[in-house]
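Supplementary Methods. Inverse-folding protocol.

Structures were first reduced to a discrete structure-token string of length 105. This string, shown here, constituted the complete conditioning input.
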């Protein structure tokens, strides 16, 4: 009879590496907020400011926008960052886009 000494056999280093690869594939990176301000003019001509934006924002925009963040802003034709991607506005850039409805950072 073999004695059970409570010691488990060492795990294969291959299994550990395979698990690590799976975790990296499922969680490829941590999202972070853009640092700075994104400013646009709404349909009433008021300036709207998103400070340190992260994710998708719906807008009622028509006209100028300023991307004073450290990340690019993807500008969409429809709400919820759907529809046509109208443009990608790089950090520190300014432009005019009539009728965009959402922006993602």
């Amino acid at each position: 009879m073999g004695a059970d000494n409570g010691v488990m056999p060492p795990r294969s280093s291959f299994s550990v590496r395979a698990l690590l690869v799976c975790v990296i594939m499922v969680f490829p990176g941590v999202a972070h907020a853009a640092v700075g301000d994104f400013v646009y003019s709404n349909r009433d001509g008021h300036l709207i400011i998103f400070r340190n934006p992260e994710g998708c924002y719906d807008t009622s925009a028509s006209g100028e926008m300023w991307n004073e963040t450290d990340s690019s802003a993807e500008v969409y034709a429809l709400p919820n960052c759907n529809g046509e991607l109208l443009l990608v506005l790089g950090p520190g850039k300014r432009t005019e886009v009539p009728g965009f409805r959402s922006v993602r950072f």
